[in-house]
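Moderator note: this is an archived Q&A kept for reference. The question asked for a predicted structure of one protein chain; the sequence and the answer are reproduced below.
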Amino acid sequence: MKPLWKTIILWLLPLFVVCFFIWQGFFISSNDSIDSNLPSSKMTYGRFLEYLEMGWVKKVDLYNNGHTAIVEAIGPELGKQVQKIRVDLPASDPGLISQLKKAKIDLDAHSQEENNVILEIFDNLFLPLLLIIGFVLLFQYFMNNAGNAGSAMSFGKTRNQVQVELNTGVLFDDVAGIEEAKEEFKEIVRFLKRPESFTTVGAHIPKGVLLLGPPGTGKTLLAKAIAGESGVPFFNMSGSEFVEMFVGVGASRVRDLFKKAKNNVPCIIFIDEIDAVGRQRGTGIGGGNDEREQTLNQLLTEMDGFERNTGIIVIAATNRADILDSALLRPGRFDRQVTLNVPDFKARLAILSVHSRNKKLSPEVSLEIVARRTAGFSGADLANLLNEASILTARRRKKMISMHEIDLTIDRVVSGMEGTPLIDSKSKRLIAYHEIGHAIVGTLLEHHDPVQKVTLIPRGQARGLTWFIPAEEQSLISRAQILARIMSALGGRAAEEVVFGGTEVTTGAGNDLQQLTYLARQMVTRFGMSNMIPFSLESERGNPFLGRNMGLKTEYSDNIATNIDAQIQYIIQSCHEKTIQIIKDNRVIIDCLVDILIDKETMTGDEFREIVAEYTTLPPKSHYNFKT
């Protein structure tokens, strides 16, 4: 830290220099103003001597060190009155003063202003000395602050701040839905607090822990919880902070980071988005040894090189584990890899319970229903959901968050902002038949998820929407469930064909057709759910450095490709025929539901099933054992 006097001088120096030039300009302008008060009429020096010989000069005032004279004279050229005339005198004329005294001329000399003398001394001596001192202080400032972003000397220094007494405000109790990962890190916290319990039996803590998982699953939050629980110095950096356009800068920053960490053991280093610096080597143009590779090499050396960094635990996070270098993942570097998946129902319920602690929820709010409706949401999505619901509640000037605000927020997050409702017209009726087609097919199929809501209120690009809610978490999906989803996706187009005819079908089923085609292709090429021999023909792996799909190549013959297309066509065609039959057999129910939907614009899943149950028997599903 710089002394206070240096800081004061550093900041006052520019102001002082500016004031000096203003001061100098003031005196220059003052001299100019003095010169402007002198008489405007001038006389040559030779003519002045002639006037002196003729006795026409009455008085002489000398200015500017004898270089200027104000002469009071009378002569034929000046008339009969005495006038003041300005005369510029030569620099060397020692006989002039004697001549003036001999002629008994009234002589007076005006000395130079003392301020001008002081200004001249300051200008020639003190100002250069002050500028030299200022440049020395500026150079020391840049050297001492080389770690700050944007400094000229900061290329080889880390930009992190060592927090000896870290207070993140996050503990393990604030992290929910990842109990297995918490157990892994509780062991690390125990080692940092009581290392003797491990070292007495010959155990040593892993050097590195790699957190893997999609965005928003709690990787950074978990790292903050570790820092909050252990209370050791915490280095928090991003992988992109190591990499610069200058060669060798990243490696220098890695060395500087671990040097600081060694002075603060035991400690934790957290590197977020490590894929920015730890991606596979040799993937650049020509496989050259670029700056990122040098940085990675230095990181590998620091983690498991010739010198053991005892007491330093490196925690890294990424959502792109497929591009990390294999040397980074071997034992001795990142010994443990902890995967944080998208939370299931129980995990979502626990996460909602944590994030709702400081929210004023209405007694009618059921977090279980919210957890069921938010399948596929990450922890960050759930936190944002409750925050958006709070904002909507405040906007409506309510004191407590109700289930209605949460439902609207979920709809907005999933499908976009609410649009203007359609007027009662042919377009609205066609959309109603399309959405009812989805809902009726999904409801009458035994292996399909139940309907949660059907609405004609536009959201995003969709003119109408039908939501289905899963009854339970499904890590495995059966062939019957996939076929049910394909038939439900075809329900909208099938309803348009049956009710309005093939010539009146619209483009509203474009997204549905993309989804069902993808499902049908996955059944044939990946899951072995077709009449072909059950083997995998395609994989999801691609070259991440060329684009996910650019590096893919077919691993089968043209004959098999033809069979694949035939199987996909067969699956979609058979599902389409069955869907058309369901729509025709339940035309009366569909017409009744369409009239109600046009009138109400939104129907809940319970209302929908009650109306359908009046006309036909619902399939025996366990999905209906809870309220949505």
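Archived answer notes: The chain is about 50% helix and 10% strand.
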